[in-house]
User: What shape does this take?
Amino acid sequence: MKKLRVGIEGGAGFTGGELIRLLLAHPKVEIAAATSSTFPGQPVFLAHPNLRGRTNLTFTRKLDYKDLDVLFLAGGHGDAMAEVPAIVAQAGSKLRIIDLSGDFRLKDQSLYPAWYAREHKAPALLKKFAYGLVELNREEIKKAKWIANPGCFATATALALGPLAKGGVGGVVSVTAITGSSGSGASASPITHHPTRHANLKAYKPFTHQHIPEIEQILESLAGKKGLRLSLVPISGPFARGIYAVCQVDLPKGWTAAQVKELFASAYKGSEFVRLVPEPPSLNAVNGSNHCDVFVTVQEGRICVISAIDNLVKGASGQAVQNLNVMMGWNEAVGLEFAGHYP
Amino acid sequence: MKKLRVGIEGGAGFTGGELIRLLLAHPKVEIAAATSSTFPGQPVFLAHPNLRGRTNLTFTRKLDYKDLDVLFLAGGHGDAMAEVPAIVAQAGSKLRIIDLSGDFRLKDQSLYPAWYAREHKAPALLKKFAYGLVELNREEIKKAKWIANPGCFATATALALGPLAKGGVGGVVSVTAITGSSGSGASASPITHHPTRHANLKAYKPFTHQHIPEIEQILESLAGKKGLRLSLVPISGPFARGIYAVCQVDLPKGWTAAQVKELFASAYKGSEFVRLVPEPPSLNAVNGSNHCDVFVTVQEGRICVISAIDNLVKGASGQAVQNLNVMMGWNEAVGLEFAGHYP
Amino acid sequence: MKKLRVGIEGGAGFTGGELIRLLLAHPKVEIAAATSSTFPGQPVFLAHPNLRGRTNLTFTRKLDYKDLDVLFLAGGHGDAMAEVPAIVAQAGSKLRIIDLSGDFRLKDQSLYPAWYAREHKAPALLKKFAYGLVELNREEIKKAKWIANPGCFATATALALGPLAKGGVGGVVSVTAITGSSGSGASASPITHHPTRHANLKAYKPFTHQHIPEIEQILESLAGKKGLRLSLVPISGPFARGIYAVCQVDLPKGWTAAQVKELFASAYKGSEFVRLVPEPPSLNAVNGSNHCDVFVTVQEGRICVISAIDNLVKGASGQAVQNLNVMMGWNEAVGLEFAGHYP
Amino acid sequence: MKKLRVGIEGGAGFTGGELIRLLLAHPKVEIAAATSSTFPGQPVFLAHPNLRGRTNLTFTRKLDYKDLDVLFLAGGHGDAMAEVPAIVAQAGSKLRIIDLSGDFRLKDQSLYPAWYAREHKAPALLKKFAYGLVELNREEIKKAKWIANPGCFATATALALGPLAKGGVGGVVSVTAITGSSGSGASASPITHHPTRHANLKAYKPFTHQHIPEIEQILESLAGKKGLRLSLVPISGPFARGIYAVCQVDLPKGWTAAQVKELFASAYKGSEFVRLVPEPPSLNAVNGSNHCDVFVTVQEGRICVISAIDNLVKGASGQAVQNLNVMMGWNEAVGLEFAGHYP
Assistant: This one.
């Protein structure tokens, strides 16, 4: 069978590296090219030393979009909205696109200035991108050609709250979500300086993180109305991989714990990557895999849902591959049927 | 000036080691003896290698209570309630006691079976212990002879919420609090097994942690009525020291952010160990010191308060020394005027 | 094609978990059963939460050896030597065995009391086990039916020094090797207590680690005589996975750096799991994979060789699978062609 | 008693922060000023959040050297050699100087181009600086006015090897030394990027680290001749603080273990900061303190010496204060009589 030819724009970052690693092992795909402005002409393993000996691929400076069936955009936020119109003009309408940035996640262009501090450059395209959170939006993704891959906090939080929203639970939900340092990317910066990140915790952007509107958007779409309102405090954690989201909300009057748990069981039936677990999850049970572990407990009028993902796999590149699979009509787990290592 | 003679029961644990370290540097105190059932007759530095060369003290098996001015109880939960009646009988009423366990923190004996899974063995003494959270209960401590030193989660959370309770804020407060592994003590156990604790997060006892009632008790006493209700999810974090508590609650109708901040400014005026910080705190700014850093923000009808402490200092032994200072009428910072190291 | 039926004795430990994870993805193998004395009758994912949803296997208490083509022994040191004679008696001579313990690594039974503090219980079998360090002993393994899988320190150190030994370099080699905590197994103990293992380093067994004789044995066999003498200091490191071995030895008189490097190039030609790297290796480039990265430098009369492996993969279970592949005449990389994740 | 007025050039770095922290608690010293080019006019606690509430000091842009009794230079390597001549011209000969950089450590100016990649700018001053490794050079320091504070690797390694050199042990010594990330300073860089530094090890500059010549210089001066030759491999470790040096060398013919141990006992008699420990040391027993723990073992013709220090205290700022104390004729432990916290 002829393999699908995929290209990766921004292959030298952490999500780019994960994409290459996953796609190298994907049986239905071949990597046509991956770009890097830092390492053009150089072996992929210079940026991703884990891949030494596993691929001879070298980074290119540019992609030939006409040569591709699928394009993954793994560059910085703001790049995709600037480039997609020209890419589409050049490649024609057959090119499928999966964008890992935040550029096409929000349907409402008016949200961009507030949350991303920039006007959107291609607002006409916003509604053409499906929001790629498979377990909560599978049917739209099946029919999509362009996909906006969710943010890492959004993935963990929306998977924790989606069944509640769908089931009609409303109110303010308090979320504390702790992230590993790889979420900040491959370039050194003060917030990832090892001496001060090590053994430390530090909250940032309380109530103002840019993933909030995409979470509220998917929850609202599941609820069919404004329902859960998100009150999110992100924390920088002292580990490299993982997002751990702790969500608390009032139990609606008259509801039982069993009702709440049934919402989760039914929402995730048939979704092999979401595992409902009987005790609070652990990052080390999901890291390295495309799984999201979700735990639910109800006590004294309160619901607590805790979710754990690998921010670079289910929170980015693994989810991008899952989106590809669904969009292509393949089994959504192709190339993703691996467990991470433990411990 | 004659130094106060203090004894430590349970000197080989982590809180015992911190007490010894702090008291060795305290100008008004001398350590008469410290017990250990594991290391009797052996040098203190076998349990606490940081103290090698800094003290010649050896552990004893028992204390001579009559020889002491002050007794610190740093043994396991459940020991103090069993021993205090006999200790008092033997030592007479002049002996001051600071208990670091949970045994005398709750005024209401009926709470012990529910939260500590045991009947209280000395309920008549419960009301004789002052709750030793200095910044929120200083006046009672000044007059006390027996003090129940707060739990580590309780310290961080109550310092974050005390000013709100005092100011009349009510409602359900969502707390996510992340703790370092030293909070589990000096003995190896599955939850502190390095391969699985490393780079991991794992919640435990959601809504059921035993520090909840002591937090609600002090908040209620500050509010003068049942006010804030605690919805606490503790998390085991991949670091050795520190507690980081993120608290969220609705802003009362009609209140302003300035009003909220003023509650904190006025509550902690003159309390040098609580530092109000203008951005979210970091563990590495407080670890090794008796400080609690507290951050407050108010946005869109929500209050977020974040506090950070060293669980073994402000959350245990440093606070015990601070209680001693207040009880003795000394400057409460004597022997505690040090910064931790950074990073 | 009929798959090979394999059994695992000791499936609930860390090496057992890695074996199960690797064998589940191996195209030529099916897991017939895995034992655990702690979790008999219970799902494998209770011990290895990463495997939840990836296998329905439950642990058994015992194996039916006659039902197996291959047996992996992943229990404690000392168990294999006690059990193998009875296993063989029961299963007959067709059963292939790969022992991950130290019980059959040394050809000379007199070394066991000195290095393992016990007499060997089945000395007659010692010479029937091939030493399973594929890159240095491939031909013997191809013909073997029983294999002694090397120790983790031994793997890293022997791969660093094998080419030198083979090339005739002699003398005392100073080795400092740092290990992750997963090497101590899945049971909690004082040396893996998180509060004191975290952010710490501590050497142990300087010059007396039990992997020393197996390293000297394979080096001597490569040299054809006593050549390199090992002076090894192991260190407990503050991470979960990996072994990092730094080896230093005098450059023989008259030799050039190019000669030394040529020894490595020729020794590892065709060995895809050993990657010769142009700068000092990193644990995070090999962890999660079966690779060993090796770096060589020669300056001012000194040779420095540094090697890095994942102790649970190349240092244990991955190597066991590689041994299976070689023994069966398959491509040695079957089921092991994955990169670890980075970072 | 009038306190000594000290100034700090380069107060916003990690060593600058430690100096300020230590000097604030020093009973015989007051900090006149500390400079920062990044934070001029701003509170010291902006750079060092542990010091919030403990000092009102603000950084200045420049120092008034005439106003100082002692100047600590804690800026970058290369700055001191450029500035000291002008400082001395301005301040006159009474100003005492303790330089924490590498600029005045080597007596032989010809070594600078080879090891520091620059010509020395003030070679005439090199011999006027005493090498500030107190335990090995106390008498010279007592008489000095200008002191070159040793490097962190040099401190750990020279303290491990000094007694051997003094006792006449020669030959090549293999050293592997692992450092925490704080040794790289307060500015973010690729080698301290948390995602790739976390849980990783990576050697660098094998045999070529710039601390080698200062170690050989002090060892040669102790031996009275060229004796021990250093073969050093440094490793970047996944923790913030500490240096752990493992040294191996041949036991001279005819020597006994007791003789070797006696060298250490006699060399460090009366040196309270060097603790001879009966088992391999731990970073967490020395971190936060000015101690160096040293362990010696002799087996089968080999000597192994392992030392552990806090790179920012004994390896930098603590040692600088110790040098001040010795130079001033004070007890060398003044202001340094604290244990670090454990764990």
